[in-house]
Amino acid sequence: MQHHSKSGRVVRIASVLAAGVVFGAAASGQTALLHLKGTSAGEMYGAIAEEVSAGFVFAPNYELVVGVPEDDTNGVDAGRVDVRSATNGTLLYSLYGANAGDRFGARVTQADLNGDGRIDYLLVGADQRGTGSPGYLALFDPLTGFQLATVPGTVPGSEFGASMAVVRDLDGDAVNDYVVGAPNEDVGLLVGAGVVHVISGVNNLEIATLDGVSAGGHFGWNVLTLGDVDGDSIPDFAVAAPSEGGMGTLTAYSETSPPVQLWQATGVNALEDFGEAVLSVSDFDGDSIADLLVGAPALLNPSLPGRVALISGATGGQITDVSGPANADRFGVAIQIGDANGDGVADVYVGAPGVNGPGTDRGAMVVETLAAPGVFSFLGVIVGDVDGDALGSTLALLPISPRPILGDYVAVGVPGHDEPGLPDCGLTIVYATTSSPAAVQGYGTGWPGTNGIPNLVSSAIPAFETSINLTIDNSAGAPTVALLLAGFAQASIPTRAQGTILVSPPWVLIALALPVGQLVMPSIVPTDVRYCGLKVDLQVLEQDFGASRNISFTPALELTLGG
Q1: Which residue in 128, 123, 179, 125 sits closest to 155, CA to CA?
Q2: Please, which residues bridge with residue 449 across strands?
Q3: First to last CA, the chain
Q4: Residue 521 class from Cβ within 10 Å (0-12 exposed, 13-18 middle, 19+ buried)?
Q5: What is the tens place of the pLDDT at every residue in 376-418?
Q6: 122-158 pLDDT, tens per residue?
Q7: What is the model's pLDDT at position 110?
Q8: Which of 31, 255, 368, 451 has CB 3.0 to 4.6 Å from 436, enough for a Cys bridge?
Q9: At 253, is the secondary structure helix, strand, or coil?
């Protein structure tokens, strides 16, 4: 196995993890913006998550879909899916498995079947693992949650619905089709070899199947769309079998009917689960074909740290790889790619839920810069706060636009999180990968009234998911009226009343009645990641007949919204 920067790099990451440090000096910091918590003990909220951009391309609704296959609402492990606003965390609707053991929400993804750029379906897998039932796939309207269709598996115990992806039209009906993994399905005498079912996007009937070739290989654990590998101008697809051959494989197929194998990549270490996570990325090796990141987290081999390999989309050959810092880290269980610090160079987010940090199994999201033609370099890390958190078990990049930050929004699963009385209820945290802390700053000079210059203060920083109190002094010593000026920039505008207006127009004007002493205004901080870094400037002008021109002015207050 290739390993860039070798031992010096491992020591540096290990020391960072042991100290519990969040992001290294090379990064610009990170900020936790939203905390989406499970509501029941043992549901491990955040173990499964996916980003969905529903609606029209020019006006998308950004949604974060959280699968909760251990939900017990309709029976033990019947399962649930929560569809939330990705920008503010609001729960839009929930979907539920019908029966105990369905494990509805074991996998979630999105589908554009007619190729118009609009997401047509939310696909939810219910693998029914451990029940002996075959599993099923349910299709929903992503905006309303209305169920459109159900595609049942046919082989008992096959775990049909464990994975799914949209592929181009394979049966010539001008509608995209999709592939569904059944990784525990038998192939003849090969128990648990796994099968991938190709399903028509028109009538949800099976078009073809692809079979695994190794008993216990779990072919179909992951499926994904690739770039155009074979030069026919049609994107191809790949199927992962993380236990095949004892190391794991990833096999590329042409999007033809029937599909034809194009290449196969194989793991390099025994029991490393090569293909547990797979992500199509841009071209790094210069052949104009999109490449892939493949996670090999070694879930059942604690003698390995886990690794992520960058492989060629054209041949499946390994370009480079990077390993976790310590054995049993499960490095590579989840992968996303973005630009953490806004420097224009790709950064890879890697989930490593086995990282100990300063405790045990706190978990981590490790960030590695990936530069062409394939050089990994450590950028930073977020480590779980509490033993057993397993932070990094799942990652979802949220392509929210417009965004006020230079970096990314990343949803990170923390399925081992506990709340009082709710062990392992789980948590999903949405981070901004560049520093976006809330702040309060006073500025400018007020103008006195009867009892001097009135003050305007905030009880706390305006962090998302919190409330603050704004306190306004009454300078008149008697009940009076006032005007609150709110804007989005500082100013210094002289007035005939001798005080200075410190907030730039246009203003939002709010009339106030001030009691004797102080007015305390409770205010809920508007929570929306698109407001990250937004500055709100405030000043109050009070009627005070003891002031030189009957008006006193507070100094101004600038509130910066953030985490």
Answers
A1: 128
A2: 452
A3: 40
A4: middle
A5: 999 999 999 999 999 999 999 988 877 777 889 999 999 999 9
A6: 999 999 998 999 999 999 988 899 999 999 999 999 9
A7: 85
A8: 31
A9: strand
Q: Residue 19 in 3-state DSSP?
A: helix
Q: How far apart are CA 136 and CA 134, in angstroms?
A: 7
Residue 12: the pLDDT is 30
The model's pLDDT over 505-538, given as tens digits with 9 standing for 90+, comes to 999 999 999 999 999 999 999 898 888 889 999 9
Answer whether residue 215 shows pLDDT above 90.
yes
CA distance 354 to 390: 6
Tokens at 264, concatenated: 């196969």
The Cα–Cα gap between 161 and 553 comes to: 64
Phi, psi of 247 (to 5 degrees): -125, -30
The answer to whether the beta carbons of residues 544 and 450 sit under 8 Å apart is: yes
pTM: 0.89
Whole-number Å distance between alpha carbons of 283 and 268: 23
Under a CB-based contact definition with an 8 Å cutoff, are residues 467 and 520 in contact? no
522 CB burial (10 A radius; 0-12, 13-18, 19+): exposed
Q: Which of 562, 542, 537 is nearest to 553 (CA)?
A: 542
Whether the CA torsion 135, 141, 143, 146 is positive or negative: it is negative
pLDDT at 90 over 80: yes
Amino acid at 292: L
CB under 8 A, 24+ apart: contacts of 455-459 = 455/554, 455/555, 456/538, 456/539, 456/540, 456/554, 456/555, 456/556, 456/557, 457/557, 458/557, 458/559
What pLDDT sits at residue 9? 28
pLDDT on residue 59: 52
Contacts of 15 (CB under 8 A, 6+ apart): none
535: which 2 tokens?
């500055």
- 6: three-class secondary structure by DSSP: helix
Q: How far apart are CA 56 and CA 238, in angstroms?
A: 28
CA 128 vs CA 131, 215, 409: distances in Å: 6, 20, 32
Yes or no: say if 326 and 353 are a contact pair by the CB < 8 Å rule.
no
Report cis status (omega within 30 of 0) of the bond before 373: yes
**pLDDT value for 435:** 81
Q: Report the largest interatomic distance among the alpha carbons of the chain, rounded to a whole angstrom.
A: 96
Name the residue type at position 210. L
Backbone angles phi, psi at 206, to 5 degrees: -70, 135
Residue 79 makes CB contacts below 8 A (sequence gap 6+) with 67, 68, 69, 70, 71, 96, 97, 102, 103, 104, 105, 106, 126
